[in-house]
């Protein structure tokens, strides 16, 4: 139950970030340039050509880091644990065509007909 509450709180906080700040990153995600990583942060699957995309992506990651740190302190766990836990849910929301990185460090793109990328450690298998 503790795991479920931590995921819910982390993901709700991540999606509470302003929509305006996520606009450039959302376009870059749809293009497969920016993607979700297993650790709960955004990363660059391809080098963005726009400074605006880089700055918006970094701004989102800074907010996520603060949220993970704050939540970790209140739950008595590490920020990394919160990030990886949030990453499980965020990876499950990767849309077709978007890039993502699992813990092996390789970038992939979700193809049509493929299930959302959810690592085994996220499901308890």
Identify the notable features of this structure and list them briefly.
single chain, about 120 residues, alpha+beta, four-stranded mixed sheet, 5 helices, 4 strands, flat
How are the secondary structure elements laid out?
Blueprint: H1 2-15, H2 19-30, E1 34-37, E2 42-44, H3 51-75, H4 79-91, E3 99-101, E4 107-109, H5 120-123
Parallel strand pairs: 1-3
Antiparallel strand pairs: 1-2, 3-4
Helix pairs in contact: 1-3, 1-4, 2-3, 3-4
Shape: flat
Strand order of the largest sheet: 2-1-3-4
CA-CA gap between termini: 17 Å
Count structural domains: 1
Work out the helix count: 5
C-alpha-based Rg, rounded: 14 Å
- Main beta sheet strand tally, sense and closure: 4 strands, mixed
> What percentage of residues falls in helices of 4 or more residues?
40-55%
Give me the count of strands: 4
Structural class of the secondary structure composition? alpha+beta
Give the rounded overall mean pLDDT: 85
Overview in brief:
The chain is α+β, with helices and mostly antiparallel strands and 125 residues long. It has one domain (2-123).
Describe this structure in words.
- The protein has 125 residues and is an alpha+beta fold.
- The chain has helices spanning 2-15, 19-30, 51-75, 79-91, 120-123; strands at residues 34-37, 42-44, 99-101, 107-109.
- A four-stranded mixed β-sheet has the order 2-1-3-4.
- A hairpin with a 5-residue loop joins strand 3 and strand 4.
- Helix 1 crosses helix 4 (79-91), helix 2 crosses helix 3 (51-75) and helix 3 (51-75) packs across helix 4 (79-91).
- The longest helix has 25 residues, at 51-75.
- It is flat and about 40 Å long.
- The mean pLDDT is 85.
């Amino acid at each position: 139950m503790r795991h479920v509450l931590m995921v819910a709180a982390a993901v709700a906080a991540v999606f509470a970030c302003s929509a305006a700040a996520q606009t450039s990153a959302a376009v870059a995600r749809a293009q497969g340039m920016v993607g979700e990583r297993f650790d709960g942060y955004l990363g660059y699957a391809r080098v963005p050509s726009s400074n605006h995309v880089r700055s918006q992506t970094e701004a989102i990651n800074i907010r996520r880091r603060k949220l993970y740190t704050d939540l970790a302190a209140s739950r008595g766990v590490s920020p990394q644990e919160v990030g990886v836990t949030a990453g499980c849910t965020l990876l499950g929301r990767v849309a077709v065509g978007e890039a993502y990185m699992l813990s092996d460090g390789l970038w992939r793109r979700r193809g049509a007909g493929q299930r959302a990328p959810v690592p085994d450690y996220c499901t308890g298998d």
